[in-house]
Amino acid sequence: MFDFSRVGWPVPPDIAPLFTRTFEDIASVGDEWTGAERVAIAQVARAGRTADDAGLLPNAAVDAAALIAKAPHTVNESWARGTMSALGDTRYVELIGITAATHAIDTITGMLGCDIQALPEPKSGSAVPAADNPRLKRRGAWVPMDGPPKPRFALSAAAGTQATVSRLVHRLYPSVEKGPNDGPVRGLTREQIEIVALKVSHSNKCFW
Amino acid sequence: MSAKNNGIRIDFLGIIDPEVDPGVPGGRELVALAHAAATAEPDPSSVNVLVDAVGPGPAVTAIEIAGAFTIINRIMHATGCPIPVRRLTAARPLLELLEAMDFPNADLVATPKKRPQDQLRRIVRRLRR
Question: Pairing between strand B109-110 and B83-84?
């Protein structure tokens, strides 16, 4: 599906399969959204509110995917809680993961000079919501989490989506698991990596 | 922090002021690429400039990391995940330098949980066994 072999720079060979797998996950039955709904969320994240041609999604989901993709810094607690009331906590969290992953893959693909990849055909089937998890609590965040309010638990209310997104993030940013004195990562020093991370976050007005 | 440990002094003003060199190889070009990746319509021309500065392999790595942080930023904004107070305290000088204390969710701070005294006593008793 993804093919970076014609890019003029050395793209690691595991990136294309990783992106392919992520899109296939998005097109599969999720934690609570169906495959078709998840693809619709990704399409809205990519192209905005008008992209939900089939009207598969409730308005709150369309608004959320569009906003989180294009202007995430404008999300506030009141809006988030209103959206969770409309969609449900797990669906909201799942939507965040799909939106963020799609946007990142499109960004990387575009920066590599390639056309964005079409989303796969959604797989059929209905989601089977997981059994209630007594560990899910709002531990200082707006969404319930299965652990302390830290990034690695942020999507834990939608465990399947959390796994998909974590796999993507940990491959793209391996420094997450490395110590501060480890050597270069694929040609960049730790300081160079920090510069990139800091600027992206600053540009996105993100406190993290 | 890693920069201090390795004897490299990053000039963090370079994050917000293009006139300032961040002090790492390809620093200005990395900042430009990172900003391009965060915009609504990423401009791939910044990648060519970065390739000239650091080489093609490291430039691709920079793209990957920028992509990762577009994910992390969106998740943090949308979930309202608070920043731990210890981390905020340690990072405050940098955050103030970067004018980040004005960011939308800068007031989301996770304070350590205050445990009731009886709970603390139970924990201590368990540890003593």
Answer: parallel
